């Protein structure tokens, strides 16, 4: 694996990074969007992507070029950058999409990689097998073995300074995805797309998507740049970035425009249903829905595609700023409220909190507790684990949500969702959290888990918990030997 990716900053597993693309002579800031360019039909041209949207990288299909009577000779003579009129990095797919759609293609990994290198691709792709979701394990294992053989073949092809993708397959089997990630990392290839996920996104199976991406990430080293193949809708960018995905390719901006569909970061609208544009991009501030509806189809399609791109690029800028501030998880939670399936995805993400915590910064901007899910965030898990490092002073300790009391050797504070901590830590992150007055039950249950962790680490110390009327489910997790005071009953 070439040393081409450098991480600048983390938030959860999300990261700001730089992907060096030697053949293009450019460095791409990640997370990055790769608009899909159809060589035969360009709703928005690559030159426009570069000049108007600041695109640093895009993706096109080398198999389409390879099989085109009109384009194969020109692209071999001119080179891909001149043909598309784009100076940034160009990624080429291999025909695996066509293989998934039609069952066969007439090109080998060697042939397509040599063609990609010949036409000037900056990041090429071998012919992997995109096993669909819910295939039998036998099929998934067999096709993964074929993909792995082709990665080995790809590593032997002389591609010069062209980077090469090592797709991570394995259908909906987390164990196979983790194994595939580890194998891909050992292949000597450079960029790691998680493949065959479009069917899951089309069916809004975001929880399943999270589980397989998390599994692939477990197999890959932290230094590996990860491409989520086909992740085209901005509503799920923040979720995918929080998992540690760095690159996203989108044909959705053009496909949706063709069907008069209008993207927002929360949903997709049909143009015919809109009376107002809920957006301030150049398209939406210069036109009304009625004006677009009255246009001829080609002009309307172009403007809708431009709007969809503005929304997509705008969301990535929002995500980058959130990582910079340390508020990515709050953004993910806000986006998760846009659709029930997105909420499932967010909750699945939190099932992997221990994995996210490994790269989550120990200090960042103020923690905002927004819901019961916030109690499962990496910061809460880290605080609970670090209780083992703290040594109570004395034999009798009061853990309280209220004021200190006489008769104890030491008094610690308790703050849901984090649990107990010495008073001296009160001004440190994340204990400076902004927490609503009306907390939900999971916040108290998380605090009780912290109490349990501390108490079990110090079996010879007597603890008293002075709580502000915690729910029964939280108190049930407090060890029996802890004396309980309900501060509300003492008022």
Descriptive overview:
- It holds the Pfam family TGT.
- InterPro entries: ArchSynthase1/Queuine_TRR, TGT-like_sf, TgtA, tRNA_ribo_trans-like.
- 42% of the residues lie in helices and 16% in strands.
- The chain contains 21 helices and 18 strands.
- Strands 6-5-4-11-10-9 form a six-stranded parallel beta sheet. A five-stranded mixed beta sheet has the order 16-15-14-17-18.
- Helix 16 packs antiparallel against helix 17.
Give the distance, in angstroms, between the N- and C-terminal Cα atoms.
Answer: 64 Å
Strand order of the largest sheet: 6-5-4-11-10-9
* E-strand count: 18
Which structural class best describes the helix and strand composition? alpha/beta
Q: State the low-pLDDT regions, or none.
A: none
Fold blueprint:
Elements (H helix, E strand, L loop, with lengths): L4 E7 L2 E8 L4 E5 L1 E6 L8 H8 L3 E5 H5 L5 H7 L1 H5 L4 E5 L2 H7 L6 H11 L3 E2 L12 H20 L6 E2 L9 H12 L6 E3 L3 H5 L3 H14 L6 E3 L8 H7 L3 E4 L1 H7 L2 E3 L4 E3 L11 H5 L2 H6 L2 H29 L2 H9 L3 H12 L1 H5 L20 H9 L9 E5 L9 E6 L3 E4 L18 H17 L4 E6 L4 H4 L7 E4 L5
